[in-house]
Amino acid sequence: MQRSLRLWVMGWSMALILTVAGWGSLHPWAPHGFGVEALQAQAQAQALPEPVRLQLPPGLARYTYDRSVGDYLEEIDLRLPGGAYVQWAIYPIPIYIQADHAQWKSFVEQAVKDWSVYIPMKVVAKEEDAFYGLSIYRVPPIGGGVAGAARPEFFFASDGSLQQRVRIIIGEGQGLAEVTAVARHEIGHGLGLWGHSPNVRDLMYGGHHAAATGNRRVLRVPGITSRDLNTLKRVYEQPTLIGQVFPEAYRRLF
Q1: pTM score, two decimals?
Q2: CB atoms near residue 42 (< 10 Å)
Q3: What span, in angstroms and rounded, lies between the C-alpha atoms of 190 and 168?
Q4: How confident is the model at residue 46 (pLDDT cuts 50, 70, 90)?
Q5: Closest Cα partner for 221 from 179, 167, 251?
Q6: Closest CA to 79 of 183, 193, 201
Q7: Please, what is the average pLDDT of the chain?
Q8: What is the distance of C-alpha 164 from the center of its chain?
Q9: DSSP code string of 107-154
Q10: Residue 19 — pLDDT band, cuts 50, 70, 90?
Q11: Which of 17, 76, 86, 75 is nearest to 51 (CA)?
């Protein structure tokens, strides 16, 4: 069992590397098999849906953009066709948190509460209830200085609409306060901040690390900043393809 978990984490590490390199996209599979050329021709003949602007989540709608600090929208990956941003379309977003360690789960829930002020989320008891949401797992230490990772998965629902789910892992061996900090950062990715701020003061800065302080390790990760919120609000003000119905020929390619 331990070996299986470690292999799983290694797979996540590779996925994280590919995502950072810009490989995480709508097309994780290459089309194959008989008739591929015909399917491609059909897909090209059918126009993709136009990205649409969705209604802002209530908390982001109430939040006033802080012009004094700006944002880092240019650092956020455009992961959908046509250069569209990733957003959530249905609220509250269900979140499943691995529940075999009650205290650990409570510290992850604190991170969920921090973000729920701006985008509604709810913790669900069953993993399958978060199929269209986020799932957070506790795994063996990841190594390489990586405390956690988030991976988006895009798929077509039965009605042909583009949907997503996000899986987050947090490595063991961290203090509980660190767990909240790591979860807060990874949930930020999952909500749509698929990139890193260049400013060390922001939650979504990409170079936070744990430093030894006497007999303790303190993770240098701040709370959610105005620049983080400015950027998230701008992401949700952009058109997206999440929730849009794609042509059947296009869906059959993947």
Answers
A1: 0.81
A2: 16
A3: 8
A4: low
A5: 179
A6: 193
A7: 81
A8: 9
A9: HHHHHHHHHHTTS-EEEESSGGGGTTSEEEEEES---TT--EEEEEEE
A10: very low
A11: 86
